[in-house]
Amino acid sequence: MQADLPFALDLMVACLRAGLPVGGAVEAAAKAVDGPVGTLLSTVTGRLRLGAGPEEAWTVLRDDPALSSLAREMIRAALSGAPVADVLTRLADDTVRETRAASSAAARRAGIQVIAPLGLCFLPAFVFLGIIPIVAGLATQAFGH
Question: Are 2 and 77 in contact (CB under 8 A)?
Answer without folding.
Answer: no
